[in-house]
Design goal:
Blueprint (H helix, E strand, L loop, with lengths): L7 H7 L2 H61 L6 H14 L5 E6 L8 H4 L13 E4 L6 E4 L7 H9 L3 E2 L3 E3 L2 E12 L2 E11 L1 H7 L3 E2 L3 E6 L26 H11 L4 E6 L6 E9 L4 E8 H4 L1 H51 L17 H60 L8 H32 L7 E3 L1 H18 L3 E5 L4 E2 L1 E3 L1 H17 L6 E8 L3 E8 L21 H7 L5 H11 L3 E6 L5 E8 L6 E2 L17
Parallel strand pairs: 14-17
Antiparallel strand pairs: 1-2, 1-7, 2-3, 4-6, 5-6, 6-7, 8-9, 9-12, 10-11, 11-12, 13-16, 15-21, 17-18, 18-20, 19-20
Helix pairs in contact: 2-9, 10-11, 12-13, 13-15
Length: 651
């Protein structure tokens, strides 16, 4: 028995190892990738959660401190007793009741408290101005009161005064203590009269954060929003003096930029404390624009991930080596006959793509594969038959399409003559050239005239489509003034605008350049757009025709205040015969040709057209047309005349 006659099933049984090899390799790769990714993701997630939890804890503390400052300011805002001793008692009591505070204070503008500043100038507890500026604090351990200092220049007073809102200052050193001030303005009758605030020592943050650990040797510290270190477990001398930018590390600098805008994240860099590769996580403390920073050695964080990956790689490598021999034999046995079939199919495919369906597949192949080329040959036979029938049907369709175009063109031409007569005689009667008519008759005649115009535009649209398909449309390009074109459009549509209780405006700047265009076609285009706007704008709405100059174009707009168009449907609006749904066709009428014709006219002028719209928000159609090469200008003042705006599920 020839080898070619041996069933492929037998060969697969002998060399099944090949498939096992592929499956095992793919499965092992997926397991390694998935397992290590999950372990790595879990390690990152735990670190981020830890940083976020501490950040939220400090955020709550700072919100509570700001609430105390706000309470002091609110109390003094409505305080009317003018008793300075009572104010001092209030501040001292707040300091006693809140052991986390290091100071409480208030500061009033000159004579803003009781008008008696001169009486207290230079007395105990006051400075030379006599202003009410008591600062109750327990810096050094003993509670005492002293006047505020540097309030005419320091942020803790000047920022609330300038901004008239609550302020949390940057950390600063005061009498050897790193503190931060929470300040709220005192406003009376919308006028700034002073501040109420509290000071908090940041030493407690260092005490808490310095004891935070992560994995084996990871540690944490905090910074202000400008990168000033507020705590550090090792380098205490950095607190209040060192900033993140001082480390001269691009990644740490990027972290500092994120912290400045209150953004969290993580970086991978060299730890400036240990000199080892580390992953640094940072989370914002929202109230104070501070950040909690967690530093974890990369080796510790990913140790479990690395160990798991190594074990899986060793196991997979042994299995792959074991299956290599079987895989080699399977490859030799299967590759040759399959390659022959693929090569033969490739030749047939190339011929078919070139239109030649006469070639057939070679059937002298292994017994288990013979049905494949035989089946392909049967398919090719059927395709040849269908191809012949399709070609014949296509020729018939072309003939029918030509007949349809001729019919439309003939019917449109035949309709124009009676329409012209109907319009002309009706206009004569309407103008009372043939005798007087009463108001009711004149209204009816106006309706006939408007609908005759609409019917004429429909016939013109059908003629345009017919000519476009026959490629016989001619354009008469010459210098045109946009003001004249827009005036013609308004004259053509004003009766329909008024009949629908709308208002139309035109906005045309003076000294507009002229354009090279077919004026008649542009009037037709604008008529179509205004007609759409009228149809889809409720009574009382506004339609606005506008134009302004760009570098190389004139930019036209037709805006309405109508029903709008869903954004996802706008790309379809310029398709021939397209309307959004059947209910629109029934309610508003139309053939779906208007915007299609507008786009054809704009394309012929080497311009652009697009639509901006939202449901119930109106619609704006934009047209951009090239300016004339000679840069001529068309005079015209900015004009506004009656009408309303439109929106639209356009034709």
């Amino acid at each position: 028995m020839k080898m070619d006659d041996v069933p492929l099933k037998v060969k697969l049984i002998l060399y099944i190892g090949f498939s096992v090899l592929i499956v095992m390799a793919a499965t092992t790769a997926i397991i390694i990738s998935t397992s290590t990714s999950q372990h790595e993701e879990l390690a990152y997630k735990k670190s981020i959660e830890k940083a976020s939890n501490y950040a939220n804890q400090f955020n709550s503390d700072m919100q509570a401190n700001m609430a105390i400052a706000r309470t002091i300011a609110s109390t003094l805002t409505v305080y009317n007793s003018s008793d300075r001793d009572e104010v001092n008692d209030i501040l001292r009591e707040v300091l006693v009741d809140n052991p986390n505070l290091i100071g409480t204070y208030t500061g009033f503008e000159p004579n803003a408290f009781d008008g008696r500043d001169a009486e207290f100038a230079g007395t105990e507890g006051y400075d030379s101005t006599g202003r009410l500026v008591p600062y109750w604090n327990k810096i050094g351990g003993t509670m005492f009161v002293e006047p505020l200092i540097d309030y005419e220049s320091s942020d803790y007073y000047q920022l609330p005064k300038q901004l008239e809102q609550e302020v949390l200052t940057e950390p600063y050193l005061y009498q050897g203590e790193l503190i931060v001030s929470y300040v709220s303005p005192i406003m009376r009758e919308d006028e700034f009269v002073g501040i109420g605030g509290v000071d908090v020592s940041l030493n407690y943050i260092d005490e808490i954060v310095s004891n935070v650990t992560a994995f084996e040797t990871g540690y944490a510290f905090t910074t202000s929003n400008t990168g000033i270190l507020l705590s550090h477990p090792v380098h205490k001398e950095w607190i209040g003096t060192q900033t993140l930018n001082d480390f001269d590390d691009p990644e740490i600098t990027r972290m500092a930029e994120d912290i400045l805008v209150g953004q969290g994240g993580h970086i991978e860099t060299i730890d400036p404390t240990t000199g080892e590769n580390a992953i640094i996580f940072y989370e914002p403390v929202r109230t104070g624009n501070y950040s909690f920073i967690l530093v974890i050695p990369e080796e510790e964080m990913l140790a479990d991930v690395t160990a798991l990956r190594n074990e899986l790689i060793i196991i997979s490598s042994l299995a792959l080596i074991f299956m290599a021999g079987a895989a080699y034999l399977v490859a030799i046995s299967i590759t040759r006959p399959i390659n022959d079939i693929v090569s033969n199919f490739g030749d047939i495919s190339d011929s078919a793509l070139k239109g030649d369906l006469g070639r057939r597949a070679e059937t002298e192949v292994e017994v288990d594969l013979r049905k494949i080329p035989s089946g392909l040959n049967e398919i090719l036979d059927s395709l040849q038959t269908y191809s012949d029938e399709l070609e014949k049907a296509n020729e018939e369709l072309k003939s029918l399409d030509q007949m349809k175009d001729v019919f439309l063109s003939n019917v449109s031409h035949e309709l124009r003559t009676p329409l012209t007569s109907i319009k002309g005689y009706t206009q004569n009667v309407y103008d009372e050239s043939l005798g007087d008519v009463n108001d009711q008759q004149k209204t009816s005649l106006g309706t006939v005239i408007r609908n005759a115009d609409r019917l004429r535009r429909l016939v013109d649209s059908l003629l345009y489509i017919s000519k476009a398909q026959a490629e016989v449309i001619e354009y008469n390009f010459k210098e045109c003034q946009m003001a004249e074109i827009m005036n013609n459009t308004i004259m053509d549509t004003i009766m329909l605008v008024e009949a629908n209780d709308l208002h139309i405006e035109k906005k045309i700047p003076s000294d507009l350049p002229t354009i090279e265009a077919d004026k008649t076609r542009l009037v037709d285009m604008l008529n179509n757009l205004v007609d759409n706007a009228i149809k889809f704008t409720p009574p009382g709405g506004i339609i606005t025709l506008g134009v302004y100059e760009e570098e190389r174009y004139l930019h036209l707009t037709v805006h309405d205040t109508g029903i709008g168009i869903p954004k996802e449907l706008i790309p379809n609006l310029f398709r021939k015969f397209y309307q959004i749904d059947s209910s629109i066709r029934r309610k508003y009428g139309g053939t779906g040709l208007g915007l299609y014709i507008c786009k054809k006219i704009v394309d012929a002028h080497s311009g652009e057209i697009w639509i901006e719209s939202e449901t119930d928000q109106g619609t704006t159609v934009h047209i951009r047309l090239p300016k004339s090469r000679n840069g001529g200008e068309a005079s015209g003042n900015m004009e506004v005349s009656g009408s309303v705006e439109i929106n639209g599920n356009e034709e």
